[in-house]
Fold Capsular polysaccharide biosynthesis protein.
Amino acid sequence: MNVQQKSVNEFLRILARRWAVITAITLFFTASAGLISFFVLSPEYEATAKVLVNEINAETATDTGDAATSFYQMETSFKLFETFMVIAQSPQVLDKVVDNLGLRDSYSQMSEKVAIDRVGESLVIEIKANASNPNEAVNIVNEISKVLNQEISKIYGENQLSVLKTGGEGDVVTPVNPKPMLNMIAAFLAGLVISVVVASLLEWFKKPQIQPAQPQAQKGPVFNSKLFSK
């Protein structure tokens, strides 16, 4: 049996001897994560709205031909898309949303609740909001869509957005956070690793420490006293 096999066998023997410690620590971590997820952390609900950035009117864009017109429309629409996403996350929009809904959130607090993303390579803006109340999350995304459309109409003088989906349509009412099962699995793995380390340390401290041998004092020659008694 080589050294590596001996080490593996010794490790397995440690696990067998300390199974109670390993089980207790692992269960403690897993149960704690479950209790915190279910009873301590506040649930968060998510709502989603989608708006489409309308293409620029070809008649007002250019008169240089169909191919050039289509290219100009596409290029201008994508530039507007990036601009609209910035406007959607600006204080100009989010502060009005807070005021209109009668919320107490500051701009920074509201911006943390809201996520503005692009759907693939399309001209669709996806607006997501998380809140402790599902109705509040729905109201936030719908109000952002409304205020964003109003602000863009003021700037560009025409309706540049079309609402594809309002908050609440097809949204699942179950909380998106916390995720108890995911938290418990992570806690189980962490508890298992920590418990194995603790078991190994207990075995190491239990082993008798071999003290280095003390050098014996050198004894001198032994003389027979009878030789000197004569």
About this structure: The two ends are 66 Å apart (CA to CA). Residues 58-64 have pLDDT under 50 and may be disordered. The CA atoms of residues 96 and 102 lie 10 Å apart. The first helix runs from residue 3 to 17.
